[in-house]
Amino acid sequence: MKKSRTQLKKALQAFVNRMTKEEFAASLEKAGLEFYKNIKAPVFNGSKNRVSERTRKVDNYSDKTNKGRFIGSLPMPEIDNYEIVHVPFFKIPQKANADWTITHINLAVEFPCLLSHRQTMSPWTFPHGKWYLLPPDTKLGTGEVCEIEYYMAA
Amino acid sequence: MAKLEAVTHINKEVPDAYHGTKLMDARKIRAEGFEVGRKRDSYLGDGIYFYEGSIELARYHVANRRGLKRYGILQATVKLGKCLDLNTPEHREILKTVREVLIENTVEDPDDLTDAFIINWYACNYDTELDTIRWTLFKQSWGQIYPRSRVRHSEPMICVRNIGNISHVQIVEEKSI
Lengths: 154, 177
Prior knowledge:
The complex is a heterodimer of chains A (154) and B (177).
Chain A: H1 2-17, H2 21-38, E1 67-73, E2 84-86, E3 89-91, E4 101-110, E5 116-121, E6 131-133, E7 139-141, E8 145-153
Antiparallel strand pairs in A: 1-8, 2-7, 3-6, 4-5, 4-8
Chain B: E1 9-22, H1 23-32, E2 48-52, H2 55-65, E3 71-85, H3 89-105, H4 115-126, E4 132-137, E5 155-160, E6 166-175
Helix pairs in contact in B: 3-4
């Protein structure tokens, strides 16, 4: 198996090497960039995502309270709808003051049939404008309403 | 270097593949046939998804997960043909290898690479004759069927990329209330 894997890898690499940079980019596009980008990391990026219609409220960050919030539903595969899944990424919006960091995050998820779940994660320090992976034990119900409230400090 | 054919043809048919969908769509499919579209929530990339051997799984999917009140379940025969069978370790290795190559040739976060993307890239570019993908969906959270059992809940699925491999389509159940 190891031998055939090595052979396949060589063949695939040779296949890729024969492509120009543009052709390779086109091959990725053909595979569906929506799979590449959006299944795992779309949820709370209100500015340019394709699921924004499912996002009820994106960001109401307030300088007075140093608090912002994302509310949205999780666009995970519908086959997952009934169960608990590990979830994904969210994105903190770029703020004018880049020195600010997130001090802690409240994560609230409503499971209509099960229970309401709230968890606080702290303290995290993040630069802004990037995707972040929630801790591995974070579980959300797919398709359910999810709210992330974040607090920032200088 | 010549293209290495990692996936070979399987001469096997699955006569009891089930696909659940909206009642209207089921009737349309019965009359006009399937159409492959791209859905963002596809696990195994582009294709028509079937449950293998269980009408109950198809029913549960439409009625409980999708919450449809009016649905139809289609039964079809699926010829596996050139099948990426992810139930076999050999074919899982293919997926891993393709992922590695994509990571080595792209600069973005490898965690963004989903199964659907990797399979689509492979099937849209390298092995364009891939007919089907076969897989048994299993999740830790589903658990055993009873305490201390080694048997766990699982869902055998087939994703058909080549609709020419689907035949004998019939509606076997309709619910319209």
